[in-house]
Design brief:
This protein has 3 domains: 229 residues, 3-Layer(aba) Sandwich (Rossmann fold); 165 residues, Glucose-6-phosphate isomerase like protein, domain 1 (Rossmann fold, 3-Layer(aba) Sandwich), CATH 3.40.50.10490; 31 residues, no CATH class. Strands 1-12-11-7-10 form a 5-stranded mixed sheet, with helices on both faces. A 5-stranded parallel sheet has the order 3-2-4-5-6, with helices on both faces. Strands 8-9 form a two-stranded antiparallel sheet. It is globular, with a radius of gyration of 24 Å. It contains 17 helices and 12 strands. It is α/β, with parallel strands linked by helices.
């Protein structure tokens, strides 16, 4: 079970300016209201991610079992929620889980990145998985048209078995493509938004392909969901952490730093960054008033960023809340040889485990931040495996939605992202966006860009 060490988020003699226990008790009413709103949304089937632990995955395991053994790589085309969860799970387990197959994710329209990606895979042994609910995401669809064209030309007799599409269950032109081409397909559920979708077909297909135990992922998610059913914040780590972050945000701490002390978990800080930013960064509250809220998520890596960011964190503006991710037991470790027993500069390291040094540095950073009166928490993984990653995913998805309720905003939409999509459609000449093109031309003219 994941451990949530929150003692350095509350007021103490070391951090007297932190949130006092009384403040949490005073928040009982807003916690109760937010909990009731979540229960209401669940009854309305709005928060579908809560029900994913019961997902029937036979369609995924059946698909994997039918694949030719020669396919050893999956290349996912997606962006945002269609990509970050896939990357985070694979990065976490490709070494610790000793996965036998490879995953690549193409999630940016940078042409050099595509060139590098194609240079890294053997297309003869690669399955392409296109993930887009709408089938209109410009970045994903550009990659789709390039990659499918390449696959069709290179493998004209059997290209169908090399292409998978994950999209809306019924709507969108990709469903027509699937029907006409005979591609295998999977579903992006209607009631699970993209950034909450890693435990749907969106993330489970690639995870199962590379050899993860997706049943254990869902079991971990179920364990955390059940743990977070209790409205009492002291028995609900998602509610407790959301409330504390909310209160710190109200105190002017506008930045949330996630700092894994594990390279394997670094991409989960990326996943968190989208989840927290896109869900909580909102201009309007639920009544339509302008409030401009949102805590900026930042990622750092221990120990690497002790030598680049921690100076700012300890002595710069006290406007941040910190969360460490710690691993107690690594599946691979090294003992540091005592090469220079007569030199005190390095002999103290001799005979110690590399993991021991890593976690000592993590604790040292905690001490430094606490002495600088900077609030910090620690989420501890006993080991990195599917069960504990499933726990972590569910923890943060519940925490994010609960924080949205406390902020009185909609944590499930992303109107700011939609505005950028519309401008892209207009710039690229998509039909139906004449007014937007005209507005853009005026924008360019006013700035001397035309």
């Amino acid at each position: 079970m994941l451990k949530f060490a929150y003692h350095n988020l509350l007021a103490s003699t070391l951090i007297p300016s932190a949130i006092p226990l009384e403040k949490l008790k005073e928040s009982a009413e807003i916690v109760k209201v937010a909990h009731q709103e979540i229960l209401s949304d669940r009854r309305a089937d709005i928060l579908g991610f809560y029900n994913l632990p019961e997902l029937d995955t036979n369609h995924i395991t059946d698909f994997i079992a039918k694949q030719d053994d020669k396919f050893d790589t999956m290349l996912v085309l997606g962006i945002g929620g269609s990509a970050l969860g896939n990357k985070a799970l694979y990065s976490a387990l490709k070494t610790e889980g000793e996965l036998k197959k490879k995953l690549f994710v193409y999630d940016n329209v940078d042409p050099v990145f595509l060139h590098e990606t194609l240079g890294s895979v053997n297309l003869d042994t690669t399955i392409i998985n296109i993930i887009t609910k709408s089938g209109t995401t410009a970045e994903t669809m550009a990659g789709y048209m390039i990659l499918v064209d390449i696959i069709k030309q290179k493998f004209p007799s059997d290209y169908q078995k090399r292409i998978v599409i994950t999209t809306d269950r019924e709507k969108g032109f990709l469903r027509q493509v699937i029907a006409s081409e005979g591609y295998a397909s999977f579903v992006v559920p209607d009631n699970v938004g993209g950034r909450f979708s890693v435990l749907t077909d969106v993330g489970l297909v690639s995870s199962a392909f590379v050899g993860m135990d997706i049943a254990a992922l869902l079991q971990g998610a179920a364990s955390m969901r059940n743990r977070c059913q209790n409205p009492d914040i002291w028995d609900n780590p998602a509610y407790l952490n959301a409330l504390i972050h909310f209160l710190y945000y109200r105190m002017g701490k506008n930045i949330s730093v996630m700092m894994p002390y594990s390279n394997a978990l670094y991409d989960f800080a990326d996943w968190y960054r989208q989840l927290w930013a896109e869900s909580l960064g909102k201009r309007k509250d639920n009544s339509g008033r302008d409030i401009f809220v949102g805590q900026t998520p930042v990622k750092a890596l221990g120990t690497t960023d002790q030598h680049s960011q921690v100076q700012l964190y300890t002595e710069g503006p006290n406007d941040k809340v910190f969360t460490f991710l710690t691993v107690e037991n690594f599946k691979h470790d090294y003992t540091i040889p005592n090469l220079h027993p007569d030199r005190e500069e390095v002999s103290y390291l001799g005979g110690r485990k590399l993991s021991e040094l890593l976690n000592a540095e993590r604790f040292a950073t905690e001490i430094a931040l606490s002495q600088a009166k900077r609030p910090n928490a620690n989420i501890v993984f006993p080991v990195i495996d599917e069960f504990h990653l499933g726990e972590f995913i569910m923890l943060y998805e519940i925490q994010t939605v609960f924080a949205g309720k406390l902020l009185q905003i909609n944590p499930l939409d992303q109107p700011g992202v939609e505005a950028g999509k519309i401008a892209t459609y207009a710039l690229m000449g998509k039909a139906g966006f004449d007014k937007e093109r005209s507005d853009i031309e005026q924008y360019k003219k006013e700035r001397g860009l035309s």
